[in-house]
């Protein structure tokens, strides 16, 4: 223990004369040295006012300030978890959560490259995403922006996203740092997370994004352990800057700097702001739209009176400008023109592919793939366009028109208005025309007892029914129940009572309630579609008819009942106006499947679950672990955290009658005290022809095998034996083994 504490480098945070925390300056580590040197040279020519100007949002357009005199363009930014928001001619991609559900790194990467291409074409310097908060509670309103309920999966997806967007020279922004796991009371709740859980669950995916070179971080609205995320010396200063050695720049979420916290925000490491100042512990702007940073702001006065040093302002400017150099934006970057047509057939095809490879097949009693010759009866408001223009049922809506009809993705500030949308019914009609079959549509959920339809079904031999339902989700509120909107569940049950082959297609942003209908004998197929973007119908048709053999897996657990989940927001909670309301992360490390495993709760469908039209065998598990005498401890900022300490291989074989892709998953049972029974530490996508076999390899890093040791503030390899579980889901384990490390 003593040795370990000596290994922890001297804390390099500085303190002001007044004792307030001041974040360490960027030091160019991790490949940023050249960019930082160039930034320092440029910033040294700026006046204080110019430096302050580049820390604030420009009023005219989403832009962080420029210094034209020196050729520094400033940074235009765009939101959008599903593409480039706020600009015409942008593609509406499947949700980030769908990308995660594909468990396919290549697909996640290609999705991000395409988003990066569209952003660049429009001259946008900064694209917001990846969102890497954890789907802690099942109805989390912004789960669509995130990568599911597991930190490892989320981290892998975050890294692919950063690499993909930044391959186009566009900065990517990881958000919402940190603890923004619920929308309920997001501006006046404090997420209280113990140190070990913070590191092993919530910081984890952000660390992977930093490792991938992410240029910027958006700090969140909420408090973290009692102080605002954008002015928090622990989460911003210690965790992000000291431990992760983040070299890029931090922007506040829109209006996330609150009155009275401007100085603390600057000193803790917030480098720039978007939006105006809010009143603390409320949902309200300070009257008169006041900016917290910039030449005419509290920050400017703080520099004048010495509570924020000019060297901190220099560091802000260095971080922002060095990212501009690092991404090559100083060279021939396209001029801003949000109306540039960034659409392409290539992107449409990619969206269709991501869609079909992210639809999770949950149940299939021989109904799918459809034969192509059956008559199809299609029910449900999500199968078509908006029928009613019904009043929007929620308090926070950016795109009310999208509540009915086909669900493309989550709503709120990152909603991308799709250039077009293919509904399930349209796609089925095209298919029916090509195959001389018939398809009938009955979309009105409020008229689900459609006697004419049911009479037709009764008279059609071999008819199949499809019920397409949705549960809208958005920024600004969490889903209180997980039941399909607009009498969706009643529609499913009604159709199933009349049609012996009923497939349910469910669109939402995370888990949904299946308990009233999933075991119905006539519900012979269930598909979790998530939000598929503009090609929704085509992606569904590809899976329904077996053009694409489904391979996606659930990036969350679907429980039998709401009470089975480890964390639900208190929906009655109200702001106190003078201090935070606390949200205690009492489940600790036991998020999602870890909770169900620990407490022996049987889920309806577990994390990692997903069926295929073929079957796969697993054999020949082999484990090679390091034989070196390892240091047991690695400090938080160790460069060894990503070193490989063990290699696991397994053979996967397609034992069925159709080519397909399998997603083998590796879970570790760590001997560390208090560790989850299983924690995901590897997955792969393996495409296999019939009877083909492939060896799959998983590399386990030092961080994968360590626990966060609060006492030593570092990553520690536990004593004892690791259990290795490899299988097709978190509960369908096919092979197990063990190994130990020497230290
Ligand atoms: C959201 C952010 C978003 C910002 C700007 C905020 O309401 O929390 O995710 O990036 O708006 O659009």
Classified in CATH, the superfamily of the largest domain is Glycoside hydrolase, family 3, N-terminal domain
Sheet with the most strands: spatial strand order: 3-4-5-6-7-9-12
Considering DSSP H and I runs of 4 or more, what fraction of the residues is helical?
A: 10-25%
Q: Kindly report the average pLDDT value.
A: 92
Number of structural domains: 3
Q: What is the terminal-to-terminal distance?
A: 13 Å
Query: Can you count the beta strands?
Result: 31
What report would you give on this structure?
The protein is α/β, with parallel strands linked by helices. It has 3 domains: 33-326, TIM Barrel; 348-564, 3-Layer(aba) Sandwich (Rossmann fold); 614-740, Immunoglobulin-like (Sandwich). The protein is 25% helix and 20% strand. The protein has 18 helices and 31 strands. The strands form 8 sheets. It has a 7-stranded mixed β-sheet with strand order 3-4-5-6-7-9-12. Helix 15 links the parallel strand 16 and strand 17 (502-507). Helix 2 crosses helix 11 (310-326). The longest helix is centred in the N-terminal third of the chain and has 17 residues, at 105-121. It is globular. The structure holds beta-D-glucopyranose.
SSE blueprint and pairings:
Blueprint: H1 2-7, E1 14-15, E2 21-22, H2 33-43, H3 48-53, E3 57-58, E4 63-64, E5 75-78, H4 96-101, H5 105-121, E6 126-131, H6 151-166, E7 171-177, E8 189-192, H7 195-211, E9 216-219, E10 223-224, E11 227-228, H8 233-243, E12 249-252, H9 262-268, H10 298-305, H11 310-326, H12 345-356, E13 360-364, E14 376-379, H13 424-435, E15 439-442, H14 451-458, E16 464-470, H15 488-498, E17 502-507, E18 523-528, H16 536-544, E19 581-584, H17 593-598, E20 616-625, E21 633-635, E22 644-654, E23 660-662, E24 665-669, E25 679-683, E26 686-688, E27 693-701, H18 702-705, E28 707-709, E29 714-716, E30 722-727, E31 733-739
Parallel strand pairs: 5-6, 6-7, 7-9, 8-10, 8-19, 9-12, 14-15, 14-16, 16-17, 17-18
Antiparallel strand pairs: 1-2, 3-4, 4-5, 10-11, 13-18, 20-22, 21-29, 22-27, 23-26, 24-25, 24-30, 28-29, 30-31
Helix pairs in contact: 2-11, 5-6, 5-12, 6-7, 12-16, 13-16
The structure holds beta-D-glucopyranose (BGC).
